[in-house]
Write a structure and sequence with these properties.
The protein is an alpha+beta fold. The protein has helices spanning 3-34, 49-59, 64-67, 81-94, 148-160, 170-211, 222-232, 240-252, 257-267, 271-277, 283-294, 306-322; strands at 39-46, 72-78, 96-102, 117-122, 141-147. A 5-stranded mixed β-sheet has the order 1-2-5-4-3.
């Protein structure tokens, strides 16, 4: 294709590519977060004219706008291999998938290389009924699904500029193979660790549910605190940051797990009064108020707002009257 004609056609199509990039990024992010799949970030790029020219020369395209499938690229960076599999399954259901490939399966045992799952997809025709996606249904989008470690390795590999084994100096090959294997192993180990944490918490929850009480002989750690909160406040919102802060405060004030369970049980009869005065509360906030009222060593009136101190004092007076 004549370079002038190629440039004119590229400039004509560019606004649509940019709109596709923006709208599909938003759609994919909403789908993944809506499915409660942990995601670090979703990145996009539109192929530059210079990159298009390089690909035409390398691939000998004679009709690049139909032959090149990656004018729009979306990269989804997730946490663990299980998340990659879940995101792949979700996007396969939601979009028209043209191609699906696990790049790690293309590597031999003695090869290094970046690992990610690639999807070539198009917007479903049914989506074109809405203004956001009208005119985008014919555009192919390349989606890369990676874990954080996959992404880190890909960026390092790009920096090294080695695209294949034959490009690597012989004296460096072994080191690269070992590093690549360690990154892959670390991904697997992090996945295993996550599964162990989930199993640990599930065991605690099942025992508490079966016995109708929380086991005070357990070690006090962040996971036992999370399960304690879920046991005593099952309908309250979970807030991870507040739970971590609460755990640090509990440790600082040397409150044991047995004391936490006792205070949570004792305060049950006063929760309706608390929720009448301030609502809705997260599970961490519920227990924090219980400790402020029932655990003198925990309470820090000088660090609280006047409003919080008023609530604590009102509840403390009610507790005293019922004691």
């Amino acid at each position: 294709m004549d370079p002038i004609v190629l440039r004119a056609e590229y400039d004509k199509r560019l606004p649509t590519y940019i709109r596709t990039s923006k709208n599909l990024r938003e759609a994919i992010e909403l789908l993944i977060t809506g499915a409660e799949i942990p995601v670090l970030t979703v990145l996009t790029r539109v192929k530059t004219f210079e990159s298009l020219q390089e690909k035409i020369d390398r691939k000998n395209y004679d009709n690049p706008f139909s032959q090149a499938p990656d004018f729009v690229g979306i990269r989804v960076i997730l946490y663990f291999p299980k998340d990659v599999a879940a995101a792949r399954e979700l996007l396969t259901k939601e979009f028209d998938v043209i191609e699906s490939a696990d790049k790690s399966e293309l590597l031999k045992a003695n090869e290094f290389g970046y690992r990610s799952h690639h999807l070539l997809l198009r917007t479903p025709k049914s989506w074109a009924k809405t203004p956001n996606y009208r005119g985008l249904e014919g555009i192919t989008v390349e989606v890369q699904l990676r874990t954080i470690l996959m992404h880190a390795w890909a960026e390092i590999e790009h920096k090294l500029q080695y695209k294949s084994n034959v490009q690597v100096p012989a004296v460096l090959k072994r080191k690269l193979f070992l590093l690549s294997a360690k990154v892959e192993e670390a991904d697997d180990q992090f996945q295993s660790l996550v599964e162990d944490v989930e199993a640990y918490r599930k065991e605690i929850a099942l025992k508490a549910s079966k016995e109708g009480k929380f086991d005070t002989s357990l070690e006090l750690n962040l996971d036992t605190l999370k399960e304690l909160l879920a046991f005593f406040y099952p309908t309250s919102e979970v807030h991870d940051v507040m739970t971590q802060q609460l755990f640090d405060e509990i440790v600082d004030h040397k409150i044991s797990l047995a004391e936490l369970v006792d205070h949570a049980k004792t305060f049950k009869r006063y929760e309706d009064r608390l929720n009448d005065m301030v609502s809705p509360l997260t599970s961490a906030a519920q227990l924090s108020y219980a400790l402020d009222v029932l655990a003198p060593q925990y309470s820090t009136p000088d660090q609280n707002t006047d409003g919080r101190n008023k609530i604590i004092n009102t509840l403390a007076e009610i507790v005293r009257k019922k004691a």
